[in-house]
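Trying the structure run again after the queue cleared.
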Amino acid sequence: MRTDNAHAALGWAEELQTVASAILVPMRVAATRAGSFRASVESASAGPVTVARIRSSPHLVAREACAITSTDPDLLMVTLHGSGPATVVQESRQRRVAPGDLVTFDTGRPYRLDVTGPCDVIVSGLPRAMLGAHADLIARRTAAPLPTDAGARALVAAFLSGLGEQLDSVPASSGTHLADAMVALLIAAFAETSAERTEMSTPLTERIIAYVRANLGDPDLSVESVARRHGISPRHLHQLFRGRDFTFTAWVRHERLHRIRRDVTAPSLAHRTVAAIAASWGIHDADHLGRLFRAEFGRTAMEIREAARTAPRKPAHRSSATPSR
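Done. Tokens:
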């Protein structure tokens, strides 16, 4: 949606509100300065994750309690502020945001974002379910800006910046892989900054989980290779997973199988064979894959793919809106 007509500031703020609400969650947007209002929004889907780049004049964004319903997507929103100072508020936290900071919001609770200068922001909406147990790790950091000057935070910033520059060319076939990479980086970034220290969930464990999820396609991924990569013994690695639902090896298998099932049911990957999809997630033996799928899901991958073909699906969302003066 593009237009070059002149409109009042309130009108363009309302259009930005409409577009942002459609691609993320319902929110209120208001211009905070008199005069012309400029804004552009580009968005694309990377698998189940929505990514948008918003460039605009100063404005206020509010996710208000009266607008939150049970039908809204259950998202954690992660923003990278490329430019434009801002103030964020969620629950009892109020913080200043500097260019280069990462900020998260829990869309299930009210929040405010007051952008006080021209801004360039990358916004990503991640389904809470996709983050699993790590959703709470990230949710505990809402409205608490993280600088992106080092470590995994710098990698997240580079990833989101690059994605924001290439939204028009995000290939549908790689969307789920991009989403997995984003989630793995985010978990690593928030794990390394977390002050939490528990027996079952330590920064080291979170880094290992992030590393494995980013490298599931490597057929040589193993207890030994992961332990060596993180400077620990295989025995220590097994101890880190003691008390969880899965052993380390079973967890890696579980992660791979669920990604293969997701990909074989994705319409955008219908042209790829089951064997090719399985190989991309590190499983190259077709007979072994069949046994694993029957044990995990009660059906083969082909049976699951065939069943999915008859199920109605929503089309992937991609939009561009550029209100201008």
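The chain has twelve helices and eleven strands. Worth checking whether this holds up in the mutant runs.
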